[in-house]
């Protein structure tokens, strides 16, 4: 009874399941699937296959492997042979120079909340959140939970629209600490990608979304409603910009 | 096994060189380390087992550290996965491993798939997607291993690593249309393999 699907239909169904169709195409395919039981059965099979693969155990990065890899980038002083004492002094001198450079850099980071250093801090906070057991302090897709949490902890509550209909469900919120400032951060998800939106109270000259990158993550910075926002994610720059467009559209409509 | 590097020249520590190394090390920690789990998962499915995967990832990390200046922004994960994939291929070629030999008989699967759709006399009332949902991990893992490499790597990058189509195209250096058709075929073959094993 079931007809066999064409390659193009199959490819489109896969892209539909993967959330890779644009909104207009996705609507077209949602309607076709609703009207055609063969398409619906094929869609179910694709979803089941995808879920079966995603459910497989992933090999864990063992502490041993992580240590070996971190050792690659470490200066590894322990493996160096003993040296004459003059070299020891040279090393200490070099260490003092480096420490001074690093320390002055750190002071610059903390005293210059804007500029490239701030992006580094945001990227670090995002990375830490991904390494933690949960990227959020308050887990909720309900903005009526997230906003009061942030408000109670910081006295600040940036707009927290749930963007699930646009493909970006709200996961929750957390408090990030940059230097001496505590800042509310909203967390959204887009398929397997996590998006952190850091919301600092204030304004900047940058009003229109501006794409940036730091530490392997892409960022978009913009300013609206008395907040300076920085969205950070491993999404591609244009995908992140389109998220920012959806966030702004939802945040500015009451 | 790969030994840790001995820490470079020891006769003349130079501040300049140390700073360059620091910068490379910092970039390495930012760009590579966050995506280790993804690299390991990809290596596991390319190599066929977890212990080879660890060696591949460690090798790939050495290459990544050496070539960290080649990272030009963009998806750090795609950048690392590209290196892991290349490392896996040269590693497996060196090991003369049989893991890359295609195991599954695709003609069989196509036949089974065709028989399933055109037979019509199938008395089995269970929806096919239900059979796949019930399949256990080992069976799914065996089915993935039986896919041809081109299909397997696209499927793993998508469904294990969670890469976007665009990232997969970047890692495999393929047009996005090819990624899409391989993924569609790969999932279809996987479903057929699992179904066959279940029945």
Describe the secondary-structure layout.
The complex is a heterodimer of chains A (254) and B (199).
Chain A: H1 7-17, H2 23-35, H3 37-54, H4 63-73, H5 85-111, H6 116-131, E1 138-139, H7 143-154, E2 170-178, E3 181-190, E4 193-201, E5 210-214, E6 217-224, E7 227-233, H8 237-252
Antiparallel strand pairs in A: 1-2, 2-3, 3-4, 4-7, 5-6, 6-7
Helix pairs in contact in A: 1-3, 2-3
Chain B: H1 15-31, H2 36-47, H3 50-66, H4 76-95, H5 106-118, H6 128-134, H7 137-146, H8 149-159, H9 165-172, H10 176-198
Helix pairs in contact in B: 2-3, 2-4, 2-8, 3-4, 4-9, 5-10, 6-10, 7-10, 8-10, 9-10
What this model shows, in words?
The complex is a heterodimer of chains A (254) and B (199). Chain A has 254 residues and is of the alpha+beta class. In chain A, 49% of the residues lie in helices and 20% in strands. In chain A, strands 1-2-3-4-7-6-5 form a seven-stranded antiparallel beta sheet. In chain A, helix 1 crosses helix 3 and helix 2 (23-35) packs across helix 3. The longest helix of chain A is centred in the middle third of the chain and has 27 residues, at 85-111. The longest helix of chain B is centred in the C-terminal third of the chain and has 23 residues, at 176-198. Chain B has 199 residues and is mainly α. Chain B has two domains: 12-95, Rna Polymerase Sigma Factor, Chain: A (Orthogonal Bundle), CATH 1.10.1740; 107-198, Orthogonal Bundle (Arc Repressor Mutant, subunit A), CATH 1.10.10.10. Chain B is elongated, with a radius of gyration of 21 Å. Classes of the chains: A alpha+beta (254), B mainly alpha (199). Chains A and B meet through helix 1, helix 3, helix 4, helix 5 and helix 6 of A and helix 1, helix 2, helix 3, helix 4 and helix 5 of B.
